[in-house]
Amino acid sequence: MPNTVVEGRTLSLSRPDKVLYPEVGFTKGDVVDYYTTVADAILPHLRDRPASFVRAPAGVTGKSFMAKHVPPGTPNWVTVREVHRIDGRTDRQVTVQDLPTLVWAANLAALELHVPQWRLPDEGRADRLVFDLDPGAPATIVECCAVAEWLRDRLARDGLEAWAKTSGSKGLHVLAPLRPTDSEAVAGYAERLAREAAEELPELVVHRVPRRLRKGRVFVDHGQNAWTRTTAAPYTLRATPRPTVSTPVTWDEVAGCERPDDLLFTADAFTAGDPTARLERHGDLLDPLLDAARAGRLPG
C-alpha cells in the first residue's frame, strides 16, 4: 500500500491500479490524479458544505452506494461537522476543505461528490438556486439546453444571473447565486418557476415527478433546493460507464448544442495535459457563484 504526502498529510493509497471504469481502463490512481488536477476549481464549491459520496469500490460496473456518514478509519485531520437531519437529530458528515481530504475521498473510490445548496454554519439558508434538467427519452441534453435558456432569461427578469453545467450524466444544471435565503423560500420560488416553464413550454417541459409524464420532455427538477437535498458538485466525476464530469459550460456552448455528445465531457478534457484543456482555456466558469457581490435576492 503506497504512501504519498499531500500538503504535509501522509495518506496510504490502496490499490491505485484497480480499474474503476472498465470501458476505458480508468483506474483509482487516475481518479486521484483527476481530482488533484481540478482541486483548485472544485474545492471552493465543496468547502463548508457537508459532503455525500457515491462510492464504487468495485468500479462502476459493480455495486455503488451513497455514503453520508463518516467512514471508519477517517483521519483525525479530516474536518467533520454536525449536520441536522429532518427528524431533528444530527449526523456527523465530512466537509472537503482541502486537497488532502479530496485525495483521501478519491482513495475511498468516492467517485461522485454531492453537496447541498448551503454552507455551514448557515445551515438551511441557501446561497444558490439550482434546477436539475432531466430529459425523458427520446429527449436529450439538446432539449435541456433549450429549457436552460428559457430559465436563464426568466431568472434574469427577477434580477438573478444564471450559469449552467452539465450533470455529467444525461442532463443539465442551471444555477444562480443568492444572498443567503431560507431554503423553504428558495424551494417555493423554484417550484413556481418550474410550473411556469411547464405552462409556457408544455410540449417541452414537465414539472411533476412521475416518469410516465416525462417521455420526450424535460423534467425541471426543483426539489434539490430543499435543505435536506444535494446536487452533484461542479467538476465531480460521475459513476457512469466512462469517467464523465459535471462540467461548467458557457451559454454559447448551450446555444450551440446540436447533438448529445456536444456537451459530454470526460476527465480527459481536464487531464490530457493539452494547453487547450478545458480549465486552462476557460478557468472556472462557475467562479461567479462564489462571488457575494453577484448574489441576488428572490423577488418579493
Automatic annotation (TrEMBL):
Sorted alphabetically, which InterPro entries does this protein's record hold?
A: LigD_pol_dom (IPR014145), NHEJ_LigD (IPR052171)
Entry's Gene Ontology molecular function annotations: ligase activity
Q: Ligase: present as a keyword of the record? A: yes
Note whether S-adenosyl-L-methionine occurs among the keywords.
Answer: no
Which domain of life does the protein's organism represent? Bacteria
Q: Where does the record place the DNA ligase D polymerase domain? A: 27-284
Keyword terms: Ligase
| Protein's name in the database | ATP-dependent DNA ligase
> Which species is this UniProt entry from?
Streptomyces taklimakanensis
